[in-house]
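Re: weekly structure request thread

Next one in the queue (155 aa):
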Amino acid sequence: RQRRLIAQQLTLSVARELAEKEEERLRFEANPEAYHAYLVGSSLMSKLTLPHIRRARKAFKQSLSHKADFSPSFTGLARTFTSEWLVTAQGNNELLHLAEQNALRAIERDRASAAAHRSTRTARSNSDRCSEAPKTGPSGWRSRPARRLSNRTVS
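Done, posted below.
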């Protein structure tokens, strides 16, 4: 009896997972232009250079121009803003704000998106870390007052 119950629960779980994956596949296939632009952006994100990050952002925006509610593209945009913040020595906290906004847009469209939740958490934790940190230079170094040199000459 317990084996049968376990088998039924396992069958239901697998069927539910397959149905979710099928729905996701159909969403991707429904607009191939949006999916293609998303894939281009994702591919560009494999190289963390500023030009690649910005080209990826452009691809994700292009994806959204084809399908305005495409959650993976909002997540991709969030990743580009966080990545740019990291690559540019963490100097512009507005990038973290934009990352969080786009990740939240992705969650609004797909609450089950682990990538969107991860992007939100990443942006928030980096933003919190910046607001709690003592005032430092752009690369995290803390400035020290210069020591006064005595009137002695150095030979």
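Confidence is low (pLDDT under 50) at residues 137-155. The longest helix spans residues 2-30.
Next request, please.
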